[in-house]
């Protein structure tokens, strides 16, 4: 099993159709202990319970540094270590450039960019002690294309920031045995996108996707599995596109 007994923390993983939830499910199938973090404790616990008794769900707002540190301590107290962190929590706001206010900028950058920093800082000391760990950061094709259908320019900025932060972390943490990589999903059918696409929009979007379909959460979960496990043991600082060929 690719993740046998590995303790895998996934942020923003309670949403039913989400990428984080699919990742927690796939990690569990491959022998990992999935720790589901999200804003709502009951939702996170229910999502973990669905996976079986080896798994846990806790409340953690990734924009709150003290909460990230506290949950990391709790996980290490209970399981003895953290092997994998997937920084998946993120929000979008479909705003035009001139409509972005300070509160919009803060909200979107806080979850993706500050959250990635805080949660990574919370687990890295534990990974360092064991000289081993894999951190996966969820960026977006919006970072590469400068905009998407549902995310505004501030979302692109946040997700481009994630790419830079992840590369810098990979450079600094490599000597400690910690790998850090990013994933740039294209258009994935989840709650962020679900129900908002009209047939006309879908037809137009598919013209730009050589594989001729939208992605699903499992497509991204499989990329997370590769980057979390030893399959990618000599890969760090990389960016893995999961977009059906959108950027070719
Ligand atoms: P989703 O809305 O289904 O899941 C996001 C989860 O993050 C939710 O469960 C939400 O409760 C949680 N969350 C929000 N703020 C949080 C906070 N402060 N602390 C902890 N958790 C918080 O969305 P998704 O489509 O599964 O997106 C997952 C990630 O993938 C996001 O980072 C998103 O930006 C990225 N992404 C999604 C797509 C797509 O097309 N769906 C494309 C590219 C990138």
From TrEMBL:
InterPro entries named among the record's database cross-references: KR_dom (IPR057326), NAD(P)-bd_dom_sf (IPR036291), Sc_DH/Rdtase_CS (IPR020904), SDR_fam (IPR002347)
Instruction: Enumerate the PROSITE patterns for this protein.
Output: ADH_SHORT
Per the database record, which ranges form the Ketoreductase domain?
Answer: 6-186
Q: Which domain of life is it from?
A: Bacteria
Q: Which SUPFAM superfamilies match?
A: NAD(P)-binding Rossmann-fold domains (SSF51735)
What NCBIfam families does the record tag this protein with? PRK07231.1
Q: Give the similarity note.
A: Belongs to the short-chain dehydrogenases/reductases (SDR) family.
Q: Which PANTHER family match?
A: BLL7886 PROTEIN (PTHR42760:SF135), SHORT-CHAIN DEHYDROGENASES/REDUCTASES FAMILY MEMBER (PTHR42760)
Task: Please give the name of this protein.
Answer: SDR family oxidoreductase
């Amino acid at each position: 099993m690719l993740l046998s007994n590995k303790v895998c923390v996934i942020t923003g993983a309670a949403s039913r159709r989400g990428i984080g939830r699919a990742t927690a499910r796939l990690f569990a199938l491959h022998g990992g202990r999935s720790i589901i973090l999200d804003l709502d404790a009951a939702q996170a616990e229910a999502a973990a319970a669905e996976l079986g008794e080896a798994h846990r769900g806790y409340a953690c707002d990734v924009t709150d540094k003290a909460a990230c540190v506290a949950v990391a301590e709790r996980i290490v107290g209970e399981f003895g270590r953290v092997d994998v962190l997937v920084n998946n929590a993120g929000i979008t706001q479909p705003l035009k450039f001139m409509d972005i206010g300070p509160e919009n900028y803060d909200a979107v950058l806080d979850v993706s960019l500050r959250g990635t920093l805080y949660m990574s800082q919370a687990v890295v000391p534990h990974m360092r002690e064991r000289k081993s760990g894999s951190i996966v950061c969820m960026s977006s094709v919006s970072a590469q294309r400068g905009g998407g259908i549902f995310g505004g320019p501030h979302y692109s900025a946040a997700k481009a920031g994630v790419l830079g932060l992840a590369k810098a972390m990979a450079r600094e943490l490599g000597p400690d045995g910690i790998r850090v990589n990013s994933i740039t999903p294209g258009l994935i059918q989840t709650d962020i996108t679900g129900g908002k696409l009209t047939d006309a929009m879908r037809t137009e979007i598919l013209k730009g996707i050589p594989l001729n379909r939208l992605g699903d959460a499992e497509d991204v979960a499989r990329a997370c599995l590769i980057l979390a496990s030893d399959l990618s043991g000599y890969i760090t600082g990389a960016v893995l596109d999961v977009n059906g060929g959108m950027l070719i």
